[in-house]
Amino acid sequence: MSVVFGIDPGQSGAISAIWLSDGVPANTIHKLTETETDAREFLEGFDLEGSFAVIERVHSMPKQGVSSSFKFGQSYGFLRGLLIGLKIPFREVNPQQWQRAMSCLSKGKKNVTKARAQQLWPNIKFTHATADSMLIAEYGRLNIAK
Length: 146
Fold this sequence. Notes:
- With 146 residues, the protein is of the alpha/beta class.
- The protein has helices spanning 36-44, 66-85, 95-101, 110-120, 128-143, and strands spanning 3-8, 14-19, 30-31, 52-56, 90-93.
- It has one domain: 2-Layer Sandwich (Nucleotidyltransferase, domain 5).
- 43% of the residues lie in helices and 16% in strands.
- It has a 5-stranded mixed β-sheet.
- The longest helix is centred in the middle third of the chain and has 20 residues, at 66-85.
- It starts with a strand and ends with a helix.
């Protein structure tokens, strides 16, 4: 069965997987605070045939330090390269685009996306680090993958 991966590439981001057919979460959520090898192994734990990924399109932020901007870009580039290397087709999406479609336009307030994820999947305990990736995956399932 095919999965849709949602990727929030920030340092406190995550990778989530949901089943393409019904939107049910497919596995535990992988937090990006773990190693790059762990991220690869998480993705390889699925049958990747027919899978698809949506990664949040990111850029440096005003007043963000040079070091944090570099780490942010490094994570984003690694995740894109990982998807390419594993031959997982993907699309990039702006935060405002997926948030608007998922009825959780946050304007920087993380509690908005966390509350929306909790509403959609009440049996999962979300953190700020995991809510966005699940919502990005669901956005991809509903708006891109079909």
